[in-house]
Model the fold of this input.
Amino acid sequence: MKAGQRLWTREELILAINLYSKLPFGKFHKSNSEVKKLAELIGRTPSSVGLKLGNLASFDPMLQARGIKGASNASKLDREIWDEFYGNIESVAFESELLRAKKELRSADSILSNEPDLNEILSKTGKEREAIVKVRVNQNFFRQMVLAAYDNTCCITGLQQEEFLVAGHIKRWSDDEKNRMNPHNGIAINALHDKAFEKGYITITPDYVVKVSSDLKKKGASEKMEELFIQYDGKPIHEPKKFWPEPDFLRYHNQERFRP
Done:
């Protein structure tokens, strides 16, 4: 370590991974406004934060599998906090959101400022309120992670209107509690195709190709059905830049949810 440098703390690294999760790959540079904002909050330079985000990218297993490497000078503590974060993401991601709010001198409730039923949530008390707040904060975090991975682009159609996109689960929220927050269990998808995916009318193969159910391809399908669904059959998805869908999750959806 160079003279004058200080070691990164666990808290700082958790905040860095929080930001890594929310930024599209390739936007970790020092001139990014979000990088500058975090640097100011933790008393570091934007260059230092940008380099740390690059270090964290070197741990992403799906990037490694595709031959994409991050920076090469990550520390042992970097690895430990990465494993802690994504190994217990439901708890540590929530912790990271609370830490960020605290650094910005905001209350925990402020994280939910965009929730349409915020007043109803705040009317709850005790453990019921804590549980609801945690679920909502984590759902919002999952959405940010997944949409950032796809650079706010629908993986089926290429639509880039964020308001129309959802972070869809490959293995449903109700079916796999362990992977509810796993970004590799998410896809950025528009609301219509998300419903079709949920109902099994479309799927994505483990090699990232769209398949459309024969129910939608039956003889006499309308022009609108062709426009909205059938034209995408056999086409590769719009690829994420990080957090690639886990092939085993896609295989599960192909076998258990899809209507061939």
In short: The two ends are 57 Å apart (CA to CA). The chain has two domains: 10-147, 150-257. The first strand starts at residue 165 and ends at 169.
